[in-house]
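Posting this for the archive.
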Amino acid sequence: MDVLFLLYVVSATFAGLSEGAGVLPADSLNAAVGRTVTFTTTLTPQENQFVAWTFDFNNIITTNTTSETTAPQYEGRITLDRFTGSLQLRNVSLTDSGEYRVSIISPGGGFYTGQTRLDVYVPVSNVRVTANSSDLIEFNSSVSLSCSSSGSSLSFLWLNSSSEVTASDRVQLTDGGAILTIISVTRYDQGPFRCRVFNPVSNVTSEPVNLSISFGPDNTNLKPSPSQEYYVKGSNISLSCSAVSRPAAQFQWFLNGDLLTARGPELRLMNIQMNQSGNYSCQAFNNITMRTQTSQPYVVSVLERISGASVKSSTNQPVDGNSVNLTCEAAGSVFTRQWMKDGSDLILTDNMMLYNEGRVLSFQPLKKKDSGEYSCKISNPVSSDEAKYVMVVNYGPENVKITGETLIYLQETLKLTCSAESTPSASYTWMWNKTEIISYSAELTKVITELSESGNYTCQAMNNVTRRTLSAVHELTVKAERPPSCSAGCIAGIVIACLVVVGAAAGGGYYIYKNKKMTKKSNRDTDTRTGGGGQNNAGFSGSQELNYADIRFFQNSNGGAVQLGPQSNPSEYAQVQVNSGSPAVSSLPTYEVHMQRMQIPAAQSGTQTYSQVRRN
């Protein structure tokens, strides 16, 4: 039976029967030396199967229903599952690598075969990375890293930190990837570098290796504290310098290109003075790469506070028409000067000019309208100060005038007043007929005693600052006595005559007016009353009316309005009588009766003539 089975298997193998082919997985199996491998079939378990396994056509094990035969070299290393035909191989070695085949005959006569490959590997171990140099200079040095390990069928993978290293212009992988060469290293090639070695059954990563790469200095930067455009004299400043460098850079300082004695990353400027203004820079130096780099300059501008501002005039007594300069000065760092007049920005006119960077305000020439308060504000970015100057322009005298009488009589007092526009106030000298000095004040007062004092009175005004003079002439006539004036009787006669004339005119007009009025009234009353009743007018019958005209002329010598007031002189009356009927015997009212009926304003003082008409 065993012989027949073997013959059947061999014949089936060489005949290439396809029935039942593929009972083993198509993929090969990998195993590490000393490990266990199981060749698992895909058959459903059955009893009483005939199974035969071979390795490179050498028998491993054969079985039948009653016995099994195992090759000596596999004794104790294999186990066969007779129900499925699967084979377990233990403690594999490199010599176990090869082709494995199985043939199975089922009790029902089915015939199955299968084949697969087993590859046995030595596991990876002892992975180590070494560098041919560890002290490198950026851009100047190259380095080779070698990866050594134990195992079989090894592959290599390099890692820089966590990133895979691949070949490039600067990176070379040789000896199957076991050697990594970096040409012209950079600071980014410092690592850590690791070598990962692997085969189908294991992988091991080396310990990290770091490269010491010197680089820099780069990004040299100067930082001030505090940072500002201008610094006040006497303040403190700290300048800090930094750079990207390995090893750490050394620093030295420069002012306007000149090397300072200070060393180190910080420069302290205490109680800074004006002569310390300038361009500061720091230079970083790497004593391994032997390279240097200088920072961008930082400008330190030291300013002195503005103090002691003043405005001074080129003359103590400015005179209209002369040239005058106002000079604005101050201690400290002057940036700007701003001129103002009377609290407002100064507007230059045609006689003004600013020069010397606004330091001098020049008047050419000075005018009297230039008087006022001038201020100059001096400033810089850290301070300011202001000074004021009151400009009093001395001018004149101008517009000299004399006021007073031009006609005077003997024994009367002459009073003449002289005035002039002048700063300061002018002094005055009076002369008579241009020769005799008679007074030194603005007012000339004297009693005229001689007719010969007629003539030209001259007032000379003088400004003691401008040293200018100007005169005015006043002509005076002296007469012996005033002409006689009209007496009281003369005036009364004139008034009476005027009253008579005006009264007559007024009476005539009034008579005509009343006559027309009474005629109309008589016609209206004819049918309503009997008899010729009339009014009682102090003894006059009803058909008679008596009117008094108090006539006065008002004439004001200056043409102004005239007001009436109580009179002290009796009035002259013009009697106007209007008869509307036959005259009756009667008498005129007395003056006292008339005065009781009216209040008569008195004549006003002064030379006034007036007319007053009243109807009673």
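The longest helix spans residues 488-525. The chain has six domains: 2-121, 125-210, 214-303, 307-391, 396-479, 485-516+535-616.
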